[in-house]
C-alpha cells in the first residue's frame, strides 16, 4: 500500500514537471518578461532593447559670467543705476526700485532695511507712514529729515519683506560704499536688519550705547534704534526710541 502511494506521488510530480516544461519553464529566471504559454515565440521586447544600457553623457552648459558692475562714486549716478534696474546688491529682489532720499552730502545718514510697499507707490522713502513718523522723531531732537540722507540696504523689496541673512555681507559692503560717498558726521541705523548687517549685533544690544563705523579712513558715531514701522505696530516702544534719540542728540555733534 505504501509503495502504491509513492508511485502515485511520483507520477503526479512527473505530470506537473512535464506541464511546466511544455509551458516554457525549462531555463533559469531571466530579467526580461517571457510568455510562458507561447513556446518558441521570439521575445520582441528583448530585440528592441538598445545594445548599450549606459546613459548618454550630459554636457553641462556653462553660463557666461556677467561682467562686474563698477560702483559709481557719485550718488546721483548710483541712483540712476538703481532706478534702471542695474545688477547692484539689493536691487534684484523685486521689479520696483527705489533709491536713497536726501542730499548728496548730509551731516546725518539714516540706514534701514527695505522700503515699505507704500514707499514704492509714492516714489519716496519720506512720504509714507514710516517716513512721516520718522520726520516727527527727528524734528523732536532738532534735525530736519529733508537734510538727512536716507538709504536702504535693499532698494527692492523681497516678497517676504525681509532680507535673507545670506545677503547681509554684500549689502553691508555696498552700504559702506554709499557712506563713503556721503561722508556724514553720524549714522542712525533703523531696525534689527541694519544693525546686524553693519554692526554684527542684535538690535537690543546695539541700542545700549553709541557704536562706531570705521570705513574709508573715517570713524563715525552710530545710533541704533527701532524702525518707524515697528513703532507703528508697537506704540509702547516709542518711549524707548525717544530715549535712544536723546542719547544720540547729546553725544553726537549734530
TrEMBL record:
Residues 100-246 form the Uracil-DNA glycosylase-like domain. The keyword Lyase does not apply. One of its GO terms (molecular function) is deaminated base DNA N-glycosylase activity. It comes from Sphingorhabdus contaminans. The lineage of its organism: Bacteria, Pseudomonadati, Pseudomonadota, Alphaproteobacteria, Sphingomonadales. Keywords: 4Fe-4S, DNA damage, DNA repair, Hydrolase, Iron, Iron-sulfur, Metal-binding. One of its GO terms (biological process) is DNA repair. This is Uracil-DNA glycosylase-like domain-containing protein. It comes from the Bacteria. InterPro entries: UDG_Type-4/5, Uracil-DNA_glycosylase-like, Uracil-DNA_glycosylase-like_sf.
Amino acid at each position: 500500500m505504501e509503495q502504491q502511494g509513492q508511485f502515485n506521488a511520483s507520477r503526479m510530480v512527473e505530470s506537473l514537471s512535464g506541464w511546466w516544461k511544455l509551458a516554457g519553464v525549462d531555463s533559469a529566471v531571466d530579467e526580461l518578461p517571457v510568455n510562458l504559454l507561447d513556446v518558441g515565440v521570439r521575445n520582441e521586447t528583448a530585440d528592441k532593447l538598445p545594445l548599450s544600457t549606459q546613459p548618454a553623457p550630459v554636457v553641462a552648459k556653462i553660463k557666461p559670467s556677467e561682467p562686474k558692475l563698477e560702483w559709481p562714486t557719485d550718488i546721483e549716478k548710483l541712483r540712476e543705476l538703481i532706478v534702471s534696474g542695474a545688477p547692484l546688491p539689493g536691487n534684484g529682489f523685486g521689479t520696483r526700485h527705489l533709491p536713497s532720499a536726501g542730499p548728496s552730502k548730509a551731516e546725518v545718514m539714516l540706514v534701514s532695511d527695505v522700503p515699505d510697499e507704500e514707499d514704492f507707490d509714492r516714489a519716496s522713502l519720506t512720504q509714507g507712514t514710516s517716513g512721516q513718523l520718522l520726520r516727527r522723531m527727528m524734528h523732536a531732537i532738532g534735525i530736519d529729515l529733508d537734510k538727512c540722507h536716507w538709504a536702504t540696504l535693499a532698494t527692492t523689496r523681497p516678497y517676504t519683506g525681509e532680507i535673507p541673512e545670506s545677503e547681509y555681507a554684500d549689502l553691508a559692503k555696498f552700504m559702506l560704499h554709499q557712506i563713503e560717498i556721503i561722508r556724514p558726521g553720524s549714522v542712525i541705523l533703523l531696525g534689527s536688519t541694519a544693525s546686524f548687517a553693519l554692526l554684527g549685533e542684535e538690535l537690543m544690544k546695539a541700542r545700549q550705547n553709541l557704536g562706531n563705523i570705521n570705513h574709508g579712513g573715517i570713524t563715525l558715531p552710530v545710533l541704533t534704534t527701532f524702525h518707524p514701522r515697528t513703532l507703528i505696530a508697537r506704540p509702547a516702544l516709542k518711549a524707548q526710541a525717544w530715549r535712544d534719540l536723546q542719547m544720540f542728540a547729546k553725544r553726537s555733534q549734530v
